[in-house]
Design a protein that fits this description.
Elements lengths: L10 H10 L8 H12 L4 H8 L2 E10 L2 E11 L4 E6 L5 H8 L7 E6 L2 E3 L4 H7 L1 E4 L11 H6 L7 H4 L9 H4 L2 H9 L5 H13 L15 H14 L4 E5 L7 H16 L3 E6 L2 H7 L2 E6 L2 E7 L5 H9 L6 E4 L7 E11 L5 E11 L3 E5 L6 H9 L6 E6 L2 E2 L5 H6 L2 E4 L14 H5 L10 E2 L2 E2 L1 H14 L18 H13 L5 E5 L7 H16 L3 E6 L2 H7 L2 E6 L2 E6 L6 H8 L23 E2 L6 E2 L4 E4 L8
Helix pairs in contact: 1-2, 19-20
Length: about 625
């Protein structure tokens, strides 16, 4: 995996150097990584890593009311190692890492770093020990610049006090005076020197970021790199990344992996929390799998397969292929013409789109994030005002109607951001489950709600959709659920209404292989029941596996149409980026509605073809969205 010439010294000497390494005992961090990984792959690796790892977490136990999140877990990480932490949503990954970062205090167990036992009572203790963490949901202030976010919480002296190379305008006697230095550290007098250091770090690790730019003006991939810079600026030796690709496009994820490999080559130890099998096998050296709060196994990536990891995660063989039966498409459910809508800045995001979806048809909309997917989904769901066009559902004109009118018309909506738009995270699971059903007569108790009936309803959804981590629907808040279980709660609420039209925007983003399998099966089952479905996804595999027709959205326009049978991944990728194939005309399809009564559709509007059996491939469930 890594080539390194091993000097003629004993293993004990190497291990001892791990205890006391501070960047000087072993001058080269790359050599340090080479030594660590050599130890990792020797016959003595298991015992050595157990006794002398850079990080050791031993017998960690953490319990919350009604839930054992970490059940006596052991974890070891070598110096310069990228260690994958894999498991279903709710398996205990984030809890374990929050214990390592000082956000939670374990009920029992011990943590060692460089051989020294740590007492972590706060994140500051972890930072002081050289541990940094990038959370799944970023902790940035949008109105501040990159540099200001990075140094936030740090006491930064002015540049004159930072210089040690003769560039300081202050005399040596003043600059080095302890009283003056203390005052300089107490009062932040400037950002020039920190900005220069942050910019140097960004360039060193290939982060394409302007440190003077406002965070609000950065895309999500750049914001994540700002979070990593925050940790690097504090000279961490161990970096924890919690679901780092959950909000990234495939291209942004690839750039992240390149950066992490470069950091590991410099000797930084990295714990990579994920549920995506493809990511682990692509970047990690070893992987620890958690299942239901326990450590299922720790294995070298080179000695395992995605199928083995999936089985370790869920405790059973995962169905990597799901049958997608032929379904006859009925009458149009959605008939939208000339749709126009603006983004949050008031700039036009949709350019006169036409879209027809029939009963029992899944229309997949592929595209790179930021090309109008959010605006389209919200316009179709009635929560974003259209600036032009007509929209009919089952012949009911909904242009200009209220969001409630869209709900009453039989439209269900699964938004891309489940925390911000899919739930009220500080309300209970009961309230979130009944958010749309509460107006039904069965939940009425005179002028009040019948909470007993509503509670029974919520519990039935919990059981039917296998939503875990809910011991009491009235006591557990939606925001306390793991990502996959929250997504299943939202899906349960929307599908239980038996909708005529389902708008699903990134439905499997940020969820584990088991939840992906479940969600995709639920979507296909809804298709078989005659629901028209608009599936918006950046995951090409998901689009081709679930869809009956495929449209590519680029800069607010449909630029390409095809079918799963005729789809070519390379061609789809080219169209998603706005490039053109030389032998194809540049015009967008004249229409995106299928021929009446067709069972499936061909690449060109107006043509027809016989529907054929196909299967969805959940092997990509681990590969990402």
């Amino acid at each position: 995996m890594y080539a390194c010439e091993i000097p003629d010294i004993s293993v004990q000497t190497i291990v001892k150097s791990e205890y006391h390494w501070s960047g000087q005992t072993i001058a080269s961090k790359s050599l340090y990584k080479g030594l660590s990984l050599w130890i990792l792959h020797t016959k003595l690796s298991t015992q050595i890593m157990a006794d002398h790892a850079f990080l050791r977490m031993e017998d960690i136990y953490k319990e919350f009311p009604g839930v054992v999140a970490n059940d006596h877990i052991d974890l070891t990480v070598g110096g310069g190692e990228i260690h994958g932490l894999l498991g279903e949503n709710g398996a205990g990954k984030s809890t374990l890492m929050k214990a390592l970062y000082g956000l939670y205090t374990p009920d029992s167990g011990e943590i060692y770093l460089r051989g020294d036992r740590l007492e972590l009572t706060s994140p500051q203790d972890a930072i002081d020990a050289g541990i940094g963490m990038v959370h799944q949901h970023f902790k940035l202030i949008p109105r501040l610049t990159v540099a200001e976010n990075v140094v936030l919480g740090q006491r930064e002296p002015a540049a004159a006090f930072c210089a040690d190379n003769g560039d300081s305008p202050l005399p040596e006697t003043i600059r080095t005076n302890r009283v003056v230095q203390s005052l300089a550290k107490t009062f932040s007098l400037g950002l020039t020197a920190p900005e220069q250091r942050i910019q140097a770090l960004a360039e060193q690790y290939g982060f394409d970021i302007d440190v003077s730019a406002r965070v609000a003006d950065l895309d999500v991939g750049q914001q994540q790199r700002v979070e990593i810079l925050k940790a690097l600026y504090r000279d961490v030796d161990l970096l924890i990344l919690d679901e780092p690709t959950a909000v990234l496009s495939p291209t942004e994820a690839d750039r992240l992996f390149e950066s992490l490999s470069r950091l590991a080559d410099e000797g930084l130890s990295i714990i990579f929390i994920t549920h995506k099998l493809g990511e682990v096998t692509a970047i990690a050296d070893r992987v620890t799998v958690l299942r239901e709060g326990r450590r299922a196994d720790t294995v070298p990536v080179a000695e395992t397969t995605q199928a083995d990891l999936a089985e370790l995660m869920v405790g059973r063989e995962v169905l990597f292929r799901i049958d997608k039966d032929d379904t006859a498409h009925g009458d149009p459910v959605l008939d939208a013409t000339g749709i126009r809508a603006a983004d949050d800045r008031g700039i036009n995001a949709l350019d006169s789109l036409d879209l027809t979806v029939r009963e029992g048809e899944v229309v997949g909309i592929a595209g790179v994030s930021g090309n109008g997917q959010t605006e389209l989904a919200e316009a179709l769901a009635g929560i974003r005002e259209m600036t032009g066009g007509d929209l009919r559902v089952n012949s009911t004109d909904l242009a200009g109607a209220s969001p409630r009118a869209f709900v009453d018309a039989g439209i269900s909506f699964v938004p891309e951001d489940r925390l911000q738009y899919g739930c009220a995270e500080e309300l209970s699971v009961l309230h979130n489950a009944g958010m749309k059903a509460y107006r039904e007569g069965r939940f009425a108790d005179g002028p009040l709600l019948d909470y007993d009936e509503l509670g029974s309803y919520a519990e039935s959804l919990i059981e039917e959709f296998d939503i875990r981590g809910v011991s009491d629907v009235t006591d557990i808040d939606a925001g306390d659920l793991s990502g996959g279980n929250l997504q299943k709660l939202i899906l349960a609420r929307e599908l239980d209404r038996d909708p005529d039209l389902l708008i699903a925007n990134q439905p499997t983003r940020g969820v584990d292989v088991g939840a992906i399998e479940f969600i995709r099966e639920a979507i296909l089952e809804q298709r078989e029941q005659g629901t028209g479905i608009v599936l918006i996804s950046e995951d090409i595999d998901e689009i081709t596996d679930l869809s009956d027709r495929i449209l590519v959205l680029y800069e607010g326009e449909f630029v390409y149409e095809t079918t799963p049978e005729a789809a070519d991944r390379e061609r789809l990728g080219i169209e998603m980026t706005g490039s053109r194939v030389d032998d194809e005309p540049a015009d967008a399809p004249e229409a995106v509605a299928p021929p009446a009564g067709a069972g499936s559709d061909t690449a060109e509007p107006g043509d027809s073809a016989e529907a054929t059996d196909s299967t969805t491939d959940v092997a990509a469930a681990g590969d990402g969205d």
